[in-house]
Amino acid sequence: MHGQSSLPGNPNSVSVMMFKNRSSHIGAETAFTTALIDELMRISDVSISRFSQSQESSGDGTDLAKNDADLKSNKRDRKGSSKRQKYSGNQSVDAIIYGEIVNINFGALSRTADDAVYERTVTAVVNLKMKSSDGDTLFAVNHFSESDRYYVPEGNEADETAKKEVVEKVFHRMAQRIVSRMADNF
């Protein structure tokens, strides 16, 4: 069910680009992008579409700067034209959200008497920007983090499943906090 909250810039349509994954956690980009889209759809009446980034990540942190430069270039090139930004040839949107998962860190919180890890913490960090079709920054967060803890089950397979579940839980809460902050700032 859609909520009544507005997003910065009051867009009618928003495209969410697949987040870059700078962490070593495989699939984090899909998990966080999906959690963010789900939360945007839950809290707003804005039309949300997923946009997959076509350029490959260089791994050096320049992709966010490149996105900013591309939007500014489009702004200069479109003076007097429609205010809606075109992506993927035929997709027009009022705003775009993009970013990167900077890190996902697992740490030992407690150990058993024989020094086996009993409980872990997980902390995820993201950078996110929301830009208007004119290239203006509507919302941004840098090094936004969320943490949780979990008990380590016995066995590698069970531990990997627990890690995946806790990361998804962290991303869900992170998406809720970010979208809430977006709506509050508006």
- What is the oligomeric state here? single chain
Counting DSSP H or I runs of 4 or more residues, the number of helices is 3
Strand content: 35-45%
Main sheet attributes: strand count, strand direction, barrel closure: 6 strands, mixed
Q: Give the topology string: H per helix, E per strand.
A: EEHEHEEEEEH
Number of strands: 8
Structural class: alpha/beta
Radius of gyration: 18 Å
Distance from first to last alpha carbon: 21 Å
Report on the structure:
- The chain has 186 residues and is an alpha/beta fold.
- The protein has three helices and eight strands; from the N terminus they run ββαβαβββββα.
- The strands form two sheets. Strands 1, 2, 3, 6, 7 and 8 form a six-stranded mixed beta sheet that branches. Strands 4-5 form a two-stranded antiparallel ribbon.
- A hairpin with a 4-residue loop joins strand 7 and strand 8.
- Helix 1 runs parallel beside helix 3.
- It is elongated, with a radius of gyration of 18 Å.
- About 15% of the residues have low confidence.
What key attributes describe this structure?
186 residues; alpha/beta; six-stranded mixed beta sheet; two-stranded antiparallel sheet; 3 helices; elongated
Could you provide a short overview of the structure?
The protein is α/β, with parallel strands linked by helices and 186 residues long.
